[in-house]
Amino acid sequence: MPRSPRKSWDRAIRRLGLPEYNPHDLRHKWATVTLTSGVSIHELSRWLGHRSIKVTVDKYGHLTQDGRERCRQVVEAVVAPHMLTAGRVTSEPAADSTSGRPASRCSRRLPYHP
Q1: CB-CB contact of 80 with 111 (8 Å)
Q2: What is the pLDDT of residues 56-102, one digit of tens each?
Q3: Is the full-model pTM beyond 0.70?
């Protein structure tokens, strides 16, 4: 019978034919999988028991880069229904003299990427 948890761990890993992971490797793997699957970094930080979210961001922050794309999609989904489109304009504004397109009601247009 093994005398330490680590020896039990190593024995179980060998019996299962798994790569030589240690418990801390699996902690990192779990954190990576949960974060890349959409768990918020704040929640992950709590689950990992980090004293500060800064510890979590420093270690795993690079994995949240796709957050920009998710953020863009969320903002677009919320804002798009409120943007002026050809089907939603109730009256035809005067045409812009430079482009021939209808003039915007706003002096500044927000970029829209469908």
Answers
A1: no
A2: 989 988 777 666 777 778 888 888 777 766 555 444 444 545 555 55
A3: no
* Residue type present at position 78: V
Res 88: pLDDT: 52
**Contact of 73 with 89, CB cutoff 8 Å:** no
CA-wise closest residue to 80 among 49, 52, 114: 114
Which single residue is written with the structure tokens 């989904």?
77
Computed from CA positions of residues 77, 81, 85, 86, in that sequence, does the dihedral angle turn out positive or negative?
A: positive
Phi, psi of 52 (to 5 degrees): -135, 150
Specify the length of the chain in residues: 114
Do the Cβ atoms of 34 and 27 come closer than 8 Å? Answer: no
The answer to whether the beta carbons of residues 59 and 74 sit under 8 Å apart is: no
